[in-house]
Amino acid sequence: MPGTSEQIARLREEGLAALAAACTESELLAAKGRFFGKKGAVSEILKGIASLPAEERKAVGAEANRVRAELEAVFDSRLAGIREGERLAREGRDRLDVTLPGRALPPGHRHPISRTMSDIIAVFRRLGFSVQGGPDVEKDYYNFEALNFPPEHPARDMQDTFYVESRDGDLVLRTHTSPIQIRTMEKTRPPVRIIAPGAVYRSDSDITHSPMFHQVEGLAVDRDITFADLKGLLTEFCRMTFGPGKPLRFRPSYFPFTEPSAEVDIRCVICGGSGCRVCKDTGWLEILGAGMVDPAVFGFVGYDPEEYTGFAFGMGVERIAMLRHGISDIRLFFENDIRFLSQF
Ligand code: FA5
Questions:
Q1: Which of 121, 292, 293, 319 is the most buried (most CB within 10 A)?
Q2: Which backbone phi and psi does 220 adopt, to 5 degrees?
Q3: What stretch of H or E contains 229?
């Protein structure tokens, strides 16, 4: 049957053309389905072979099988070609071009509180003070009792304390750095000249108070130390930190561990003294508490109050940073907003 072998020859041509035109694996599979898959045109011819005259069957069958084998071979090699092309394209996409310029990381810097803390420490080091540390979770004895706050004494209410659950029930998150005064005096003899920087904790929160903040404690004990030495030191500290001509004010105050005691204020930098919500309309911002070490405290550490006198102070680092940079809300330091932090 000449018709059938012509049909096979045409199928071969069309099949080869469809395989050549396929650009993707799915187009190639579609061509296979159409021409030589299980239900493709070549299979249809082989199914119809039974109806051919007996003498033609063999030749047509052989021809159809040969064409199918040829198309299958072309299919296999095209499939391998397409897969290789895709692999190369993927590799090209993923390839690392070592000649491209690198992606620069924006430079970071230290947090303004850490910087202020370091600057305060540097000033006191220049003035002859060494640096001491102590634990954040502190014994009630060091945080209060040895600082002359007897149990149940109302002065404990000056600081809203976070108590820590413990077996003996005597641990607190330190409310100030003053316990380091006691820890230092317990292990050294006068003369003492130390500062103690660190984090402290109180249940406190508004635009000038935060529940975690930093203090730098100072302590000097020697023969003949007077309140004038304290005043001179703090005045010099303010001059070195804020520059000359910044008014400072010593205001009488009360702390159980100093007598007499004072609080030191600096002219409010936000309003220049005319009154604003940061200084609560007083024109002044409190930066530290200070005073002459109470003889009762010397009693706890075995120093003779007849022989030695001393002064101590504790300053708020955040307050100093607010004053230096003109910041009106302490909470900005702890929100981690990069727009705020990147200004420093
Ligand atoms: C004290 O903590 C005393 N230990 C200071 C002291 C030391 C007095 C040695 C005498 C001798 P006061 O509670 O006033 O004192 O805190 C000291 C400073 O810490 C304040 O002047 C203020 O600048 C800062 N401060 C206090 N509470 C907060 C708070 N919640 N957030 C930020 N700063 C605070």
A1: 293
A2: -130, 125
A3: helix 227-242
Query: What distance in angstroms lies between residue 321's CA and the mean position of ligand 1's atoms?
Result: 14
Give me the average pLDDT of each 10-residue run along the chain (344 residues). Answer: 78 91 90 89 85 85 90 92 89 84 88 96 96 96 94 81 86 97 97 98 91 97 97 94 88 96 90 87 93 97 97 96 90 94 91
What global pTM score does this model have? 0.73
CATH topology of domain 112-341: BirA Bifunctional Protein; domain 2 (3.30.930)
Rounded-to-integer distance, Cα 318 and Cα 331, Å:
10
Q: Which two tokens stand for residue 263?
A: 């609080």
Residue 245 CA, chain-centre distance (Å), reads 38
* 248-255/258-267 β-pairing: antiparallel
Are 156 and 149 in contact, with CB atoms under 8 Å apart?
Answer: yes
